[in-house]
Known about the structure:
Chain A is built from no helices and 12 strands. Chain A is mainly beta. In chain A, the strands form 3 sheets. In chain A, strands 2, 5, 6, 10, 11 and 12 form a 6-stranded mixed β-sheet that branches. Chain A has a 4-stranded antiparallel β-sheet with strand order 3-9-8-7, with no helix packed on it. In chain A, strands 1-4 form a two-stranded antiparallel ribbon. Chain B is mainly β. Chain B has one domain (5-96): Immunoglobulins (Immunoglobulin-like, Sandwich). In chain B, strands 2, 4, 5, 6, 9, 10 and 11 form a 7-stranded mixed β-sheet that branches. Chain B has a 4-stranded antiparallel β-sheet with strand order 1-3-8-7, with no helix packed on it. The chains are: A mainly beta, B mainly beta.
Amino acid sequence: xxxxxxxxxxxxxxxxxxxxxxxxxxxxxxxxxxxxxxxxxxxxxxxxxxxxxxxxxxxxxxxxxxxxxxxxxxxxxxxxxxxxxxxxxxxxxxxxxxxxxxxxxxxxxxx
Amino acid sequence: xxxxxxxxxxxxxxxxxxxxxxxxxxxxxxxxxxxxxxxxxxxxxxxxxxxxxxxxxxxxxxxxxxxxxxxxxxxxxxxxxxxxxxxxxxxxxxxxxxxxxxxxxxxxxxxx
Lengths: 111, 112
């Protein structure tokens, strides 16, 4: 069975600073994808960034980047230059035939 | 940009009633999913659908649940006899591959 663990239930950061959200996972698959989803108060699930396990290069999308450590089964999200609109719940997810989600990290960006 | 749509955005129903949640996946996608999120909890997989049949379902997806693709665009989730514990946000997702899934805005189901 696949598992995803997010050990930080809540985090806060000052506007314009950098924050890193942690995620670890476990899977027996050799090829898989990892995702970070953002869920603002509207509760819509918004795809932030994806990482293909067979790619060594860490994915980057504007202010969002990941640190993918395949051997350690770690997949952290770094948000640079944090903005108030980044305040949301962030879920790490692992692909397979279904998506397996972590418990989520509530990120608050303070002015 | 294509997106997944869901209706209604909020549904209130009485315990024991049947509800149908509707989704229109992205038009060229082939895989369809339903997920559930009870308030304050993580998102949980319910069922996946491909080639007009269920490809996988979770232990949550019991006989009270069913899915259907009644035409070329809609994808529905039916709950036959709702329980209080079915109150949750229900998300539809679609994928053009088996990996990257795009989510709809969700339907908030409240069972009273």
